[in-house]
Design brief:
This protein is mostly helical and 151 residues long. It is built from 9 helices and 2 strands, in the order ααααααβααβα. A two-stranded parallel sheet has the order 1-2. The chain is elongated, with a radius of gyration of 23 Å.
Length: 151
Amino acid sequence: GIEEVVERRLNKSSRMGFDGKHRLNPGKTAIYKQVTVEDIEEFGMIPEIVGRMPVLTSTYELTEEELVRILVEPKNAITKQFRALYALDGIELQFDQDALVAIAQEAKKRSTGARALRAIVKAVLKPHSYAAPDNSELTQIRITAEAVRLV
């Protein structure tokens, strides 16, 4: 709800008609960058609590590219963890680049940031989680974008 408070403040001087300024429609990230102490108080926090916050900061929505990087780049990236887990059973786990993008797109839809990534990967791998350890003939699993979209 803080978005409405900030947007109302930003558009306070806009007027209607040919002479008026155009109404601003900033995105969520732009709105969060402009939150002030007054906005937080108008939102409903009492000044005593706001005064105890030495720094105001906000988080910004991650892009699909950033979510894909989170999936593959860190030392303990989610895809690396699952590859290691499946390697214990002698199974090579592969993720297509399109699959990584599809996972990131699904995470963006959920609006929970990087937290959604693990849940999505687990859901995609769920059909294999129980059958793979018992199947000695299975040596490789390839995750495609289509597999992600079916979840």
